[in-house]
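RETRY 2/3 - previous attempt timed out on the joint model. Re-submitting the same 304-residue input unchanged.
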Amino acid sequence: MIDEGIDNYRESAAFTESEKVALEYSELMQFAPERIDAAFYERLRMHYTDAEIIELGAFIGFNVGYHTFFRTLDFYPMYSPDGRLVSQNESRRIYGRKPVSHLQGALARAQDGAGGEDSAAEEG
Amino acid sequence: MSIIEPIDDELAEERRLTDLLETSGERELNDELFLRILGHVPGYAEAIHDAMYQSHVLGDVDHRLKEIIRIQLARTAGDPYFAGLRSGRATAEGLTEERIDAGSADFEHSPEFSQAEKWALRYAYLMYRRPEELDRSFYDEGKLHYTEAQIMELGGLIALHYGMQVFMRTLQVGSFSRSA
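RETRY 2/3 succeeded.
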């Protein structure tokens, strides 16, 4: 559902029209804010109150700002596969050079021995 | 004129935002309009105002440098509203329009800025243009000039202000060119 909402929401039957315009709002805010004009806000108003639009817009703006920043920080899981709190250098050695997300099963992959091609090789 | 109507005094009072609006100008941050637009969601108005205050006014990094960065970002975002606001405190501390403009131009070759200031300006400049260049070696260079706390202070400032500037741009609020 998450991937569908990112990659295929326009054609997807999984989303309502109000959800689709909210997803488009988010997509445009990051990649083409110049296309969010008065006409686009009129489309939003067909589905949302002004308060809900502000709620969506500020939430999206906040996330556009912070996700790019956090992406540059190159951080790693805080815990080792056996549950120890580890430093970022140690985590990098455990999980490999390429950062992995908890949401993508970092712990499970590490426990399966698939931490990355240069696991335990990088000092950071 | 904003696409979303700012809340009026009656609604601001009903939502207990009057004190926040009255103090916004004193906090060197933003004028009432931004808060009145966010005031449609009172919790957002309070939280975002506080986060912007914390990142821009408090902290350990020179407020004047953060003001130059904030304006550089607003210009990057194409937002005339925040680009037109000025911190009264930064102005009182000697920040000039020439120095602000230098921070948005070829700052790398400007004698106006120290190496530490150039790194911070580069950090903001690259964040939403070429974030892939903000790699480990870039941060290692930053650590020659700033503590990790200061780098997080700068990163948080950049992320929050840019996000709000992009949002405000879409509301087509326009330029006010006045002190915040």
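The mean pLDDT of chain B is 90. Closing ticket.
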